[in-house]
Design goal:
It is a single chain. With 416 residues, the protein is α+β, with helices and mostly antiparallel strands. It has two domains: 234 residues, no CATH class; 104 residues, SH3 Domains (SH3 type barrels). 47% of the residues lie in helices and 16% in strands. A hairpin with a 2-residue loop joins strand 9 and strand 10. Helix 6 crosses helix 9. It is elongated, with a radius of gyration of 38 Å.
Length: 416
């Protein structure tokens, strides 16, 4: 028995052949139609989208409750694959009203499930002791660096989804981060009673959705996926709506990290100045008057001349001297065990209006003002940030005193 001389080449795997065929977008009308049909079929929402959205919302709410970046990252990793968002862009490009309705409803339902997860977990803050929630405020603000990352994620997700049949997990995580975190923070802030969180969260979500969707549509155009006549009109209208949304709300929410800390803080100066008024009365003025009384002398009898000393105490004005004694501040440093900082409030207690978050390491001054609310001690502090002096109340447990004064403790304001 003899074997053929030529070597038998193994056949190429089907998945690899499909990936090779997808290396370039077809230019003919038939190839374009087949590609769009294939992408629409893969982007169609499934039950997994809603199941993973619910789990993702619960974990994200727990991350905001514990103020833990690690738990928030876990919630994003279990987020559903964001291919229905790509299907939403394809429905706009093709002008398919039915497919547009299905993808939009799928996105809305998934967002509602994530919102419910944060809303339910937020009620747990009512039964727990006061905690810092810095991540809620961080993820309900717009950051320029985050917007740049989301733009890269939108381009990568659309391009990888259109050019390959592999599931684009990594860019999907970036889009889920942009959409789910602010929506979950809105629900958590509503149930936890955190003021101004829900409105800021909606602004952040609107900006993220508009910017990512606009970049995704432009990416599909660059990939030479031809829109239909109706899709061209719908795409132009959608892009104009996204641009209008960015212009109207981005200016209200776009801040730098330093501005986000002090933009809403009222200008104030410490008013707890202990003043001691001391009234000094000088010694009384003695005005002696010598009145000689001369009696008629009797012959043969020496007559003494008595001297009478009259002391007159006239009323005199009492000078008042006011001495202002400046109290010596006690310096301290913010040292919270969780969250990386502490929340400064206008009044002691968890019901006090939130002012800002002081990060760990921030130097503050205190003059020994303490309040005990629900068996928890609060201390009044003064901080200087960007040349502006801010006062408020902190949990005493997050304050590490650098130069404690003698007999310093939870007492009333000392009087010099």
């Amino acid at each position: 028995m003899s074997f053929p001389d030529e070597q038998i080449q193994p056949s190429e795997p089907p998945r690899r052949r499909r990936a090779t065929r997808r290396s370039s977008i077809p230019a003919d009308a038939e190839g374009q139609a087949a590609l769009v049909a294939s992408l629409a079929r893969r982007a169609y929402p499934s039950i997994e989208l809603f199941v993973f959205a619910l789990v993702c919302g619960a974990i994200l709410g727990l991350g905001f409750l514990l103020d833990s970046q690690a738990v928030l990252l876990l919630g994003i990793l279990v987020a559903p694959l964001m291919v229905p968002w790509v299907g939403f862009l394809l429905s706009i490009l093709t002008g398919s009203v039915r497919f547009l309705f299905e993808t939009v409803m799928a996105l809305i339902i998934s967002l509602v499930l994530v919102f419910i997860g944060g809303l339910v977990v937020g009620f747990a803050t009512l039964a727990l002791p006061p905690m810092t929630h810095d991540n809620v405020y961080i993820h309900t603000r717009l950051w320029i660096t985050s917007l740049v990352v989301f733009i890269i994620g939108a381009i990568t997700l659309v391009a990888s989804f259109a050019r390959s049949e592999e599931k684009p997990f990594l860019p999907s995580v970036l889009i889920a981060y942009a959409f789910f975190l602010p929506i979950n923070a809105v629900g958590f802030g509503l149930s936890a009673g955190l003021e101004e969180v829900w409105l800021q969260g909606l602004i952040v979500f609107a900006v993220h959705l508009s910017l990512a969707s606009m970049i995704g549509l432009i990416t599909l155009f660059i990939l030479r996926i031809r829109p239909s006549a109706g899709g061209m009109i719908l795409s132009v209208i959608t892009i104009l709506l996204f641009v209008a949304t960015l212009v109207s709300v981005a200016g209200a929410g776009l801040t730098s990290r330093s501005e986000a800390v002090t933009s809403t803080l009222p200008a104030s100066t410490p008013t707890n100045q202990n003043q001691t008024l001391q009234t000094l009365t000088p010694s009384l003025t003695l005005n002696p008057t010598q009145t000689p009384r001369v009696n008629t002398p009797t012959p043969g009898t020496p007559s003494p001349v008595p001297v009478t000393l009259d002391i007159t105490l006239p009323p005199s004005e009492t000078p008042t001297v006011t001495l202002t004694i400046q109290p010596t501040p006690t310096y301290a440093r913010i040292q919270a065990n969780e969250g990386g900082g502490a929340n400064l409030r206008e009044a002691p207690g968890p019901d006090g209006t939130y002012i800002m978050t002081l990060l760990n390491g921030t130097i503050v001054e205190t003059y020994g003002e303490f309040e005990v609310v629900n068996n928890i001690t609060w201390v009044k502090v003064y901080a200087t940030l960007n040349g502006q002096q801010i006062e408020g109340w902190l949990l005493e447990s997050v304050v590490a005193y650098a130069t404690p004064a003698p007999n310093f403790g939870t007492t009333s304001t000392p009087t010099p």
